[in-house]
């Protein structure tokens, strides 16, 4: 004869085991769903509120190897850093479009822009931006100059720009364009002038 | 540089006050304990070795390097890590027993014991086998005897230098100093090599970490030369080093697909009072009489740098075509075209070797050429793009000392003038050409006229980049453009 307390104990343990199994199964499903959502390569656009303003994007065109100004109207937040980041994200939206004039790799993102007085802007790109970037002197130069010029033309007072990848210094963007030094805005203006003339 | 959000501060009662509610502990005691902990941590930090101990393993399957661990005063290594690059391995820990399998050879080790079973027979380790987080560690000193039992082949282990050779993989070399003026030390290896090269006053050091380079007959080689009197070989911490002693600064260049390293003094910096053509003539002809030694020293007018190389492939132009191969092929044609015009040319790499950007700049600046031309290739666009340096700001030259990042500053005008000449010649030959400024290293580190070329295909067909006729027409135009401004470049040197 099996004691009654033993039967009750085993039953309780069985119930707990089944409950735990169900809980683990639910948790696994939740993890799978969250992994799927992180695999989405589209950049996550933060909610932007504020008045619509006109800014000038400096857009690279690969077919002619030029950089051209393009006025656009976008909603911009109030903070200086947030505005700067939003402008560059607007530029990236163009580049990540299906009919992009200067395609970037899927998942390319501007992580943050930091404005450090006096006159220094730091652009922090994500790893996918640099890792998936096409390699070549002109193609990399167009990207870098497009970012620097869009920022300096729309945010007053910026004289130097530094580009980081995942918060760290990197030698080159994709084997050519130098990222180890600061970009001097007046010097970049000379490059922009050259890049506005087609080959 | 990293940015992070500030973490919110938390306020807690001081430790001494909280403790005093239970068992009273004097504040002085807590302070002493804290100080002791700080001192102990500092001592541990100071005690840590500045250089990590490593072992290099060379085999026909792979050459690799592993960290060596210090346990109980002995050197240990993870056995699984040693065998993983060599073939199929597996390991299983069961309590204190650790079973290891390499193909069909089974071994069993026991934690804390020296006795092991290898392929059915006993084997004694010099010190205890260790099991750490299911990872089996064996004493380093036993590798020379343990590995042949498992691999079934010969193994040579130099424990002092921590270099282990599996099978007949050693790379031998011969060294000979030529009787030319100035002398050249030519080192021929039995396999391609790619050492790290460093120079210091009176010495050029080549460190081989991935190559199984072994000592020649003698550790010290002496040569019948006052400029390069000797070279020495030594091994340490998993690497071999060849140090070449010299009474003058030396530069090294690679050829024969990385099998030959030529070490020679750089061309003299002082400009001899003679036209460049005479200099080039003296460089290519072998001196028949010992007139003036200076005239016979090879003095390069141009340094051509095929970008990328070795581990660094550059852009993948097609599935088969890497940028490093196109740049080398084009650079060889350019050298030929320049030399045809009497312009002595040095190729920074004449094989598939890796050179850092700093090494490229350093070698060029040591050679004191009149012009530096860096070659790139791209699949986008067409024709040739000629770049000059975008010199970064905040790096000013101070007096005679040039800032490394702004070394090009004084040469920007002559560089742009040379670039214009090249573009004109290319356009004269109906080749699309464009002059641009680019943030492209090492242009800004070069102390002479410096240009970079990006060669793109003539049409949308990228495979045309590999066409000898296309490369030849561009090389001819570039060389003609350089020859046009020869006098200007010579004056700007």
Structure write-up:
The complex is a heterodimer of chains A (199) and B (493). Chain A has 199 residues and is of the alpha+beta class. Chain A has 5 helices and 6 strands. A 4-stranded mixed beta sheet of chain A has the order 3-4-5-6. Chain A has a two-stranded antiparallel ribbon with strand order 1-2. In chain A, α2 (80-95) packs antiparallel against α4 (137-154) and α4 (137-154) packs across α5 (185-195). The termini of chain A are far apart. The mean pLDDT of chain A is 88. Chain B is α+β, with helices and mostly antiparallel strands and 493 residues long. Chain B is built from 11 helices and 28 strands. In chain B, the strands form 6 sheets. A 6-stranded mixed beta sheet of chain B has the order 24-23-25-28-26-27, with helices on both faces. Chain B has a 5-stranded antiparallel beta sheet with strand order 5-6-7-8-9, with helices on one face. Residues 1-25, 44-49 and 269-297 of chain B have low confidence and may be disordered.
Structure characteristics:
heterodimer; A: 199 residues; alpha+beta; two-stranded antiparallel sheet; 21% strand; B: 493 residues; Copper Amine Oxidase, Chain A, domain 1; Immunoglobulin-like; Aminopeptidase; 3 domains; 6-stranded mixed β-sheet; 28 strands; disordered N terminus
Largest sheet properties of chain A: 4 strands, mixed
- Oligomeric state, counting identical vs distinct chains: heterodimer
Mean pLDDT of chain A: 88
**CATH architecture assignment of the largest domain in chain B:** 3-Layer(aba) Sandwich
Computed over alpha carbons, the radius of gyration of chain B is 30 Å
Helix/strand/pairing category of chain A: alpha+beta
Can you give the helix content of chain A as a percent range? 40-55%
Distance between the termini of chain A: 97 Å
What proportion strand of chain B? 25-35%
CATH topology of the largest domain in chain B: Aminopeptidase
The CATH class name of the largest domain in chain B reads Alpha Beta
* Beta strands of chain B, count: 28
Q: What is the terminal separation of chain B in angstroms?
A: 39 Å
Largest sheet of chain B: 6 strands, mixed
Mean pLDDT of chain B: 81
């Amino acid at each position: 004869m099996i004691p009654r307390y033993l039967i009750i104990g085993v039953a309780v343990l069985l119930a707990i085991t089944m409950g735990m199994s169900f809980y683990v199964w639910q948790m696994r499903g939740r993890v799978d769903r969250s992994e799927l959502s992180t695999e989405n390569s589209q950049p996550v656009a933060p909610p932007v509120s504020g008045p619509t303003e006109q800014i000038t994007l400096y857009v690279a065109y690969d077919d002619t190897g030029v950089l051209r100004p393009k006025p656009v109207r976008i909603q911009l937040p109030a903070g200086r850093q947030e505005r700067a980041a939003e402008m560059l994200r607007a530029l990236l939206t163009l580049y990540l479009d299906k009919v992009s004039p200067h395609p970037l790799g899927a998942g390319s993102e501007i992580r943050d822009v930091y404005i450090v007085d006096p006159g220094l802007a730091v652009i922090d790109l994500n790893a996918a931006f640099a890792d998936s970037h096409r390699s070549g002197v002109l193609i990399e130069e167009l990207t870098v100059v497009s970012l620097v010029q869009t920022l300096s033309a729309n945010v007053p007072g910026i004289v130097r720009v530094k580009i980081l990848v995942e918060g760290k210094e990197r030698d080159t963007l994709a084997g050519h364009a130098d990222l180890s030094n600061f970009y001097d805005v007046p010097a970049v203006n000379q490059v922009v002038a050259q890049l506005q003339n087609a080959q | 540089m990293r940015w992070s959000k500030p973490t919110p501060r938390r306020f807690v009662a001081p430790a001494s006050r909280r403790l005093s509610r239970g068992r009273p502990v004097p504040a002085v005691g807590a302070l002493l304990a804290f100080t002791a902990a700080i001192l102990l941590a500092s001592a541990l930090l100071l005690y840590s070795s500045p250089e990590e101990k490593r072992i290099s393993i060379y085999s026909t399957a792979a050459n690799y390097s592993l960290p060596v661990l210090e346990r109980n005063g002995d050197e240990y290594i993870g056995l699984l890590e040693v065998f993983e690059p060599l073939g199929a391995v597996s390991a299983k820990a069961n309590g204190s027993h650790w079973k290891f399998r390499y193909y069909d050879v089974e071994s069993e080790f026991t934690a804390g014991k020296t006795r092991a079973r290898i392929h059915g027979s006993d084997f004694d380790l010099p010190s205890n086998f260790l099991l750490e987080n299911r990872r089996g560690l064996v004493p380093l000193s036993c590798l020379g005897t343990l590995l042949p039992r498992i691999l079934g082949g010969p193994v040579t282990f130099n424990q002092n230098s921590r270099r282990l050779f599996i099978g007949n993989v050693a790379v031998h070399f011969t060294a000979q100093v030529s009787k030319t003026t100035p002398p050249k030390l030519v080192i021929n290896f039995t396999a391609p090599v790619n050492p790290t090269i460093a120079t210091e006053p009176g010495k050029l050091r080549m460190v081989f970490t991935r190559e199984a380079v072994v000592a020649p007959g003698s550790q010290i080689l002496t040569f019948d030369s006052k400029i390069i009197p000797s070279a020495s070989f030594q091994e340490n911490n998993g690497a071999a080093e060849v140090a070449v002693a010299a009474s003058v600064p030396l530069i090294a260049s690679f050829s024969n697909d990385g099998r030959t390293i030529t070490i020679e003094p750089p061309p003299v910096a002082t400009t001899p009072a003679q036209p460049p053509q005479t200099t080039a003539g003296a460089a290519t002809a072998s001196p028949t009489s010992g007139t003036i030694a200076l005239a016979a020293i090879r003095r390069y007018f141009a340094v051509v740098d095929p970008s990328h190389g070795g581990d660094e492939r550059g852009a993948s132009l097609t599935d088969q075509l890497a940028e490093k191969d196109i740049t080398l092929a084009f650079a060889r044609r350019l050298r030929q075209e320049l030399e045809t015009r009497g312009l002595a040319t040095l190729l920074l790499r004449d094989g598939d070797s890796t050179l850092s950007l700093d090494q490229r700049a350093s070698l060029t600046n040591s050679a004191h050429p009149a012009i530096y031309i860096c070659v790139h290739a791209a699949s986008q666009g067409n024709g040739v793009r000629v770049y000059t340096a975008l010199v970064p700001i905040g790096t000013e030259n101070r007096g005679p000392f040039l800032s490394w990042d702004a070394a090009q500053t004084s040469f920007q005008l002559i560089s742009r003038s040379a670039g214009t000449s090249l573009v004109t010649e290319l356009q004269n030959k109906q080749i699309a050409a464009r002059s641009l400024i680019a943030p492209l290293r090492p242009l800004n580190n070069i102390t002479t006229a410096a240009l970079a070329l990006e060669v793109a295909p003539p049409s949308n067909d990228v495979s045309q980049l590999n066409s000898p006729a296309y490369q030849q027409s561009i090389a001819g135009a570039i060389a003609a453009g350089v020859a046009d401004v020869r006098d200007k470049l010579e004056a700007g040197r």
